[in-house]
Amino acid sequence: MILGSLGGTSVSALADTPAPLKYWAMGITFAVAAAAGFAGYYKWRERAFYLQQTADEIERHATAFDLGIHPYDEGGEHSRLAKLAREIEMLRVEQRKREQQLDQPHEGNSEAV
Predict the structure, then answer these.
(1) Residue 84: partners with Cβ closer than 8 Å, 6 or more residues away
(2) Which SS3 state, helix, strand or coil, does residue 86 take?
(3) Gap between the Cα atoms of 33 and 14, Å rounded
(4) CA–CA distance from 4 to each of 20, 28, 30, 86 (Å)?
(5) What span, in angstroms and rounded, lies between the C-alpha atoms of 80 and 73?
(6) Which of 58, 74, 84, 106 has the fewest CB atoms within 10 Å distance of its CB?
C-alpha cells in the first residue's frame, strides 16, 4: 500500500511540473511513507496503551496497600509488602510478554486460498 502510494505520487510529480515543485512533492511523499512505515512497525499506540494499563494497575495496588484495603487488608506489614511485591512483579512480567508479542511479526495464513 505504501509503495503503491509512493509510486503513484512519484509518477504524478515527475509528469509535467516545474523542477523545484517536482522534488518537493517527491520529498514530502517519501517522508510521509517513512513516517507511516515507522508508525506501523513500532506500534506506538499499542505500546503506550499497554504501558498506561500496567501503570494504572500498579497504582491501584499501591493505593490499596497504602489504605489497607483488599487484598492488603490482612497480615502484618512484612506479609503485605511481600504480597505487593509479588503483584507488581507479576504485572511487570505480563507487560514484558505483551511487548514481546508486539515485537513479533504478524503471522498470516501461509496457505494459498
Answers:
(1) 61, 62, 65, 72
(2) helix
(3) 18
(4) 23, 15, 12, 50
(5) 8
(6) 106
Q: How far apart are the C-alpha atoms of 40 and 3, rounded to whole Å?
A: 14
Identity (one letter) of the amino acid at 32?
Answer: V
In the structure, what pLDDT confidence band is assigned to residue 113 with cuts at 50, 70 and 90?
Answer: very low
Q: How far apart are the first and last CA of the chain?
A: 21
Out of 14-18, 19-23, 50-54, give the one with best mean pLDDT. 50-54
Residue 106, by phi and psi: left (phi above 0), alpha (psi -120 to 50) or beta? beta
User: Where do we find the cell 511523499?
Assistant: 29
Cell numbers for 110, please give them.
501461509
Q: Grid cell 494459498 — which residue?
A: 112
Neighbours of 3 (CB within 10 A): 9
32-57 confidence digits (pLDDT tens): 778 777 777 777 788 889 999 999 99
